[in-house]
Design a protein that fits this description.
There is one protein chain. This protein has 969 residues and is of the alpha+beta class. Helices cover 34% and strands 23% of the residues. The chain is built from 25 helices and 33 strands. The strands form seven sheets. The chain has a six-stranded antiparallel β-sheet with strand order 15-14-13-18-17-16. Strands 4-3-7-6-5 form a five-stranded antiparallel β-sheet. Helix 1 (14-34) packs across helix 2, helix 16 packs parallel to helix 17 (637-655) and helix 22 (843-858) packs antiparallel against helix 23. The longest helix has 38 residues, at 547-584.
Length: 969
């Protein structure tokens, strides 16, 4: 907005020149003191004011003309130009202030008495709105350049006519006061802007001004009310009034107004900006559009050296490495072009006199002039080196905690030594190191508690695990590779041996030319015992191991060592339990009269404890066989021991030739007494008393007990909570026998039932444990159906049938032990059995001897005739003397010769030693001397006394009866 100068002529009063010069001085002060003005355009009108030397803010000048003489070329000329062009439109583009000053210097060089150049220029200015920068007379009027002080301060002008009313109103006045020119023209400024109590004084001042006196001062004002009655805003203005004369010679005045509040706000902003810039604890830079430093604060200079002025004109290449400087320069250009600010940009570099890498966090934003033109970039930098170091420390701590957490979750999931060692390496490679190995003492792996040479660290070790994130091949220049599974040892004076000897981690020096730059040898200590050594290596290019890494490696090795030691102890217990269990199972392939036997036993894998599964084949008198399969609930050595006790009890009860139900009842009492210190009776008494059961001391087991008679081919079953037997008859499908399950052994209180089944010749009988038909992935019903379906061809060799069943079913789960007992029925032929009934009379003894002689002769067993006759005579005689009812004689030929004498008496014969003077009582002694075995058993109709003789095959010599008789005396 251009100024509208007063239309006046030069004053005839000698003091008018001084007043005009004072008016020019006011314009200079307004321009320089405010330091910020809107851009200047060409003035219009023909004001002929002369510049004076009156200072800004001075008291009103009187007619005495006491203004001091001025020198040509001073700033008053510049002030004249500024005063003449105060009201200028914003955004005009002209030359710099220096050029304008030069023009004003030329304007001041005029002869005395001639009109001033400013007056001449004012009389030749173009009308408002015409293009700026055109030559007017001998002066070039230009608008102010961008970034001028007039972009910031509010300056306006208006003129007052001889009647004291406004006759000229500039556009800047419209913006400052908010009153249009149409409304302002003809307005009394005193009445319009002054408060009522100030108007009288204002009228006096106006009279003085129109009398030719200039005046300057700070005046409060109020904008006139609008048409709707709203009161106007209050303000504070600094006014410079310059008396002039009109073309008619009447007194007038030109008023230049500056908004004081805007000036004070600018002063406050400048002071605050200076304080922020100068006192900021952060590095502060102002970078121009050429990306050069225009201003730096003291903090920045204190870091990069020198004083503040020495950094002027530098670029980022003077402070940062080349690659980093290129990146930062590209960012500066992007900020300058787009105006997008950058927050927390990390910059890395060095400071003078130090090789330490420093880090800064830089914020960048574009800076604009008052007209909105970009003039540069503000750089605010903060040193975050220590913060980044702390962040790295925190990140390392978090990484270590995460690694320990992962180690806790992944290491020790298996009770296998090699698997546990590999789990450790899976955790540390590549998250912690690039190469890792685990060596364990060979003696500990073999089961020794204290391996030899453990004290000096030179004992033999076995490499159990190796992992590499770089390559599986050995590193060039590294130690000689040791294959996984190989046994080796470390030299006594080596760091690894020292680590084993002292149980402390050691740093292994890297060899020249190799890829390994840092190695930690960490002993694996569990329960104050060194079980092995873990080595962690990092290749060149990785960060070397520090103290925190050393502590982490020790913790990881300790955790793995505990798991490995637990796995070692478990392996030892598992092996011992397995040895115990296998020692209690039947050795080799069992044999039985009238049965073809095949069996399989598969222990669980190393991850599961040994179970209590067992089976047994017990030969009974009379070519009978007891088949037993059982399963003790529980695992480990405790279950194996309980299984051994129950198996021994079963064999003992079977030798008593009890019925299957009686055997299970007695076995139930024994199982109940296993967990009680006082035995069976104590357990029985405790069962009658109410108490909280301690389940850890309760032994439960399932068992199926079957007795097969090869003569009659009948089998009697009794079941104590076990899975049902499976029978496959020739030409038929397999079926599960309906045997009442009963309660498991150890529960007590319930009787057991028997089921007798006649087995056809060639039938297949299968007894098994639940590990064969049940697993985590296959329910019991599904497994039973699969087992029955696998028995499709029972005519195959029995060993092949067993293998087929194990290969068909899911027997590799390893969750439980598996016991399988299969028997094919092969009854005694009728010609191998001799059976006679004898009346109860003395002649029956002779008939018995005759029957025996005849049968043995038919069997081609003449060597046994004499002994058999003698023993048969003794048993039949005892039956006549001590027994009851009819006497039955039976001879059975299979792998041995068995003779049985039956009667209805219930009294069991009891062997005793006869005295030398006794005439009798030596019959049973004679039976014991001449037979391989003898005994008696109860039957449903009485008792049976039997003896057994080996067949004369040349392997077992026969006892001479004469010598046996003589040995009795």
């Amino acid at each position: 907005m251009s100024e509208i100068p007063a239309k006046a002529t030069e004053s005839e009063d000698p003091s008018d020149g001084a007043r005009a010069e004072a008016a020019g001085g006011f314009a200079v002060a307004g321009a320089t003191g405010g330091a910020m003005s809107d851009a200047m355009t060409e003035p219009r009108g023909d004001a002929r004011t002369e510049p004076t030397n009156t200072p800004w803010g001075g008291a009103p000048s009187g007619p005495s003309g006491d203004a001091r003489p001025r020198a040509a070329g001073t700033s008053t000329d510049t002030g004249t130009g500024a005063g003449a062009g105060t009201d200028s439109g914003t955004g005009a583009d002209t030359g710099t202030g220096t050029d304008l000053g030069a023009d004003m210097d030329q304007a001041t060089a005029v002869p005395p008495g001639e009109p001033h150049a400013a007056s001449r220029a004012a009389s030749h200015v173009e009308p408002y709105g015409e293009p700026p920068g055109e030559p007017l007379g001998d002066t070039m009027w230009q608008s102010s350049p961008p970034g001028s002080i007039y972009d910031y301060i509010k300056v306006a002008s208006f003129s007052i006519g001889a009647d004291g009313l406004v006759d000229q109103w500039s556009l800047r006045a419209e913006q400052l006061f908010g009153i249009s020119a149409e409304r302002a023209l003809g307005m009394d400024p005193i009445e319009a802007f002054f408060e009522p109590d100030q108007r009288e004084r204002g009228q006096r001042k106006m009279a003085e001004i129109l009398d030719g006196r200039e005046w300057t001062g700070v005046v409060p004002f109020r904008v006139p009310a609008t048409g709707d009655g709203e009161p106007g805003e209050e303000g504070l203005a600094e006014v410079y009034v310059m008396p002039t004369t009109t073309e008619d010679g009447e007194r007038a005045a030109v008023c230049i107004v500056v908004d004081v509040r805007t000036l004070r706000s600018i002063e406050t902003d400048l002071a605050a900006s200076q304080a922020i810039f100068g006192q900021s604890p952060f590095g502060f830079l102002l970078i121009d559009t050429d990306l050069r430093v225009r201003r730096a604060n003291k903090q920045f200079a204190s870091v990069f050296g020198g004083n503040v002025e020495s950094h002027r004109g530098r670029t980022v290449h003077d402070y940062l490495p080349r690659s980093e400087a290129e990146r930062v320069a590209a960012t500066l250009r992007r900020v300058l072009e787009t105006g997008d600010s950058i927050t927390d940009m990390h910059v890395t570099g060095f400071i003078p006199g130090s090789d330490e890498r420093r880090h800064w966090s830089v914020n960048l934003y574009r800076v604009h002039s008052g007209s909105g033109r970009p003039i540069g970039i503000a750089w605010l930098g903060t040193d975050i080196t220590s913060r980044r170091a702390a962040a790295r420390e925190a990140a390392a701590a978090r990484r270590n905690l995460a690694l320990l957490n992962e180690a806790g979750a992944r290491i020790g999931n298996s009770l296998d030594l090699e698997t546990t060692a590999r789990e450790l390496l899976d955790v540390v490679v590549p998250g912690f190191c690039d190469l890792a190995t685990v060596d364990l003492y060979q003696g500990l792996l073999a089961g020794d508690e204290t391996p030899r040479a453990l004290a000096d660290g030179s004992a033999e070790l076995r490499r159990v695990a190796f992992a590499s994130a770089v390559s599986d091949a050995p590193f060039i220049g590294g130690p000689a590779p040791v294959a996984v599974g190989a046994v080796h040892h470390y030299a006594f004076n080596s760091p690894c041996a020292d680590a084993l000897r002292t149980a402390r981690p050691q740093q292994v020096p890297a060899e020249d030319g190799g890829l390994i730059q840092s190695t930690l040898a960490v002993p694996m200590v569990a329960h104050d015992t060194v079980v092995g050594l873990a080595q962690f290596s990092r290749t060149k290019g990785s960060e070397p191991f520090g103290d925190r890494d050393r502590a982490l490696a020790v913790e990881l090795a300790a955790r793995a060592a505990v798991c490995i030691d637990n796995a070692r102890l478990y392996r030892r217990e598992h092996e011992r339990a397995l040895i115990l269990q296998r020692s209690l199972l039947p050795p080799g392939d069992p044999e039985a009269s009238g049965l073809d036997i095949a069996c399989r036993y598969l222990p669980g894998n190393a991850a599961t404890e040994v179970g209590g599964d067992w089976f047994d084949v017990i030969e009974l008198p009379g070519h009978r066989t007891a088949l037993v399969v059982g399963d003790v609930m529980g695992r480990g050595l405790r279950a194996a021991v309980a299984m051994g006790e129950l198996r021994t009890a079963v064999r003992t009860l079977a030798l008593l030739d009890l019925e299957p139900a009686e055997v299970l009842s007695a076995l139930d009492e024994i199982a109940r007494g296993l967990g009680t210190p006082g035995g069976v009776q104590q357990a029985t008494r405790a069962a009658r008393q109410p108490r909280d059961a301690d389940l850890s001391e309760v032994y439960l087991a399932t068992c199926v007990y079957a007795v097969y008679d090869s003569v009659t081919r009948r089998c009697t079953f009794a079941n104590a909570g076990h899975l049902p037997p499976v029978l496959v008859e020739p030409g038929e499908s397999a079926l599960m026998l309906d045997v009442p399950p009963g309660m498991p052994l150890g529960v007590g209180g319930e009787p057991f039932e028997e089921v007798e089944v006649e087995l056809p010749e060639g039938a297949l009988l299968a007894l098994y444990t639940d590990g064969l038909v049940e697993s985590r992935d296959h329910p019991l019903d599904e497994g039973l159906q699969a087992f029955v379906g696998a028995l499709t061809d029972p005519s195959r060799p029995l060993e092949d049938v067993c293998d087929h069943v194990l290969n068909t079913l899911d027997t590799h789960h390893g969750e439980d032990d598996i016991a399988l007992l299969m028997a094919r029925v092969q009854g005694l032929p009728a010609d191998s059995v001799g059976d006679w009934t004898l009346p109860r009379e003395p002649r029956s003894v002779g008939r018995a001897r005759e029957y025996a002689r005849t049968q043995l002769t038919a069997w081609d067993l003449e060597p046994l005739v004499d002994t058999t006759e003698l023993l048969v005579s003794e048993l039949v005689t005892n039956a006549l003397r001590y027994g009851e009812g009819e006497i039955r004689l039976r001879l059975l030929l299979d792998r041995t010769l068995v003779c049985e004498v039956w009667d209805a008496g219930l009294v069991q014969p009891r062997r005793r030693r006869a005295r030398d003077t006794d005439e009798g009582g030596r019959g049973l002694q004679l039976v014991g001397l001449l037979s391989a075995a003898w005994g008696s058993r109860r039957t449903p109709a009485g008792k049976t006394v039997w003896f057994e003789l080996p067949l004369p095959d040349g392997g077992t010599p026969l006892t001479d009866p004469a010598e046996a008789l003589l040995s009795l005396f």
